[in-house]
C-alpha cells in the first residue's frame, strides 16, 4: 500500500516536472544552457569523487598525488583533465545562462526569487572553483590562495583575526589545504541542493520565453521535444569539451601551476583562473585595498539587486531599441574587463580598467533603472501613435 502510494507520488512528480511539464513552444537554443549547466554539475561531481580517491590533502604530498593521478592511476589523466576543463566549461555555460537571463529579462517579476537563487549558486560556484584550484598545490595555487584570503584582512577591526581563522594558522599552510579540500568536496552538494530549489522556483512560475509575453496556447509538454533540443545542445558542448580535453588540456591552466608551491618564491604575475578575471579587474581598478574588495563584492551585489532595479514592463531586449545597444556594450565591457584582469596594473591598463569598471556599475545602477522608466513611455507612445495612424 505504502509502496504503491510512494510510487504514484514519484511518477506524478516526474510527470509534472520533466515529462508533461508545460514549456513555451518558442524557446530557442538560449534556453538549453540551464540543462547543460545541470549536466556539467553532475560531470564535476562524479569526476571529483574519483579524483578524491587518489588525492592527498597534505602539503608534502598534494602536488605529487596529482602527478600520481596523471601518471599511475588508470585513466587518471582523463578524469583530471575532464574535471579541470569541466570547471571552465561549466563557467562558460553559466555565464551564457546569466547573460541570456539579462537579455530576455528573465530576472523580472515573477522570476525574481529564481534569479536570486541563481546568483547564490553562482557565488558558491566561485568559492568552490577557487578552493579547487588551490588543491594541486602548485605555485599559482599557493599564491592565489595567499592573495585572495588576504583580501579579508581589509575587514575593519577584525580583518587579521578573520584571515588567521581562515588559514587555521599564521600563513596558508597544511590546515588551509585541508579545510579547502573538505569544503571543495562539500560545496558542490550544496550547489546541487540549491539547483533543486532553483528548478522548483522555475516550475512554480514557468519559463519565460524569447518574446517575454505569455499568451494562450503557447505551451507544449517538455518530453520529447525539449529533451531532444537540450541533448543536441549538450552534444555541441561535448565537441568543445573533447577539443579541450584531448587537444589543449592545459590551455586554460597557468604553466606556473606545474611548479610545486614555494612560499619563498613569488611568481612574477599572480593571475586567477580566466573565469574570475572580470571580477579581479574590478578589484584592482580601485587603488584602495578595502575599496577594491567592496567594488568586487558590489559587482555581485548589483546582480542580487537587479530584479528590483528594473521596473520595465517589456522583458525582452529584442523589443527595447535603446536598451539593446547598451546591453551589448555590457557584454563587450565584461569580456574587456576579463582581458584587463590578466594585464599588469600599469600604463593604459589602469585607466581602461577604471573606465570598464565604471561602465559595469553605471549599467546596473543608472542605465537599467533610467531606461525602464523612459523607454516604456517611448514604446507605449510609439505603439499608440501607430494605432492612431
Ligand atoms: C549550477 C548552476 C545552474 C543550473 C544547473 C541552472 C539550471 C537551470 C535550468 C535547468 C533552468 C531551466 C532551463 C533554462 O531556462 O535555461 C534554469 C532557468 C533559469 N536560471 Fe538557472 N541554473 C544555474 C545557475 C543560474 C544562475 C547563476 C543564474 C543567475 C544568476 C540563473 C538564473 C536562471 C533564470 C532567471 C532562469 C529562468 C529562465 C527563463 O525562464 O527565462 N541560473 N536554470
From TrEMBL:
InterPro entries, sorted: Cyt_b/b6_C (IPR005798), Cyt_b/b6_C_sf (IPR036150), Cyt_b/b6_N (IPR005797), Cytb/b6-like_sf (IPR027387), Cytochrome_b (IPR030689), Cytochrome_b_C_euk/bac (IPR048260), Cytochrome_b_N_euk/bac (IPR048259), Di-haem_cyt_TM (IPR016174)
GO cellular component: mitochondrial inner membrane; respiratory chain complex III
Gene3D superfamilies the record matches: Cytochrome Bc1 Complex, Chain C (1.20.810.10)
Chain ranges of the Cytochrome b/b6 C-terminal region profile domain: 212-382
Pfam families attached to this UniProt entry: Cytochrom_B_C, Cytochrome_B
A biological process from GO: mitochondrial electron transport, ubiquinol to cytochrome c
Membrane topology: Multi-pass membrane protein
Required cofactor names: heme b; heme
GO terms for MF: metal ion binding; oxidoreductase activity; quinol-cytochrome-c reductase activity
Segments passing through the bilayer: 29-56, 77-100, 112-135, 142-163, 183-205, 226-248, 290-310, 322-340
Highest rank taxon of the organism: Eukaryota
Main subcellular location: mitochondrion
Cofactor note: Binds 2 heme groups non-covalently.
Every Cytochrome b/b6 N-terminal region profile domain range: 1-211
Compartments where found: Mitochondrion inner membrane
Binding site for a ubiquinone: 203
Binding site residues for heme b b566: 97, 198
Residue sites binding heme b b562 per the record: 83, 184
Keywords (A to Z) from UniProt: Electron transport, Heme, Iron, Membrane, Metal-binding, Mitochondrion, Mitochondrion inner membrane, Respiratory chain, Thylakoid, Transmembrane, Transmembrane helix, Transport
Protein's job: Component of the ubiquinol-cytochrome c reductase complex (complex III or cytochrome b-c1 complex) that is part of the mitochondrial respiratory chain. The b-c1 complex mediates electron transfer from ubiquinol to cytochrome c. Contributes to the generation of a proton gradient across the mitochondrial membrane that is then used for ATP synthesis.
Matching PANTHER family: CYTOCHROME B
Entry similarity comment: Belongs to the cytochrome b family.
Protein name: Cytochrome b
Organism: Vischeria stellata
Taxonomy of the source species: Eukaryota, Sar, Stramenopiles, Ochrophyta, Eustigmatophyceae
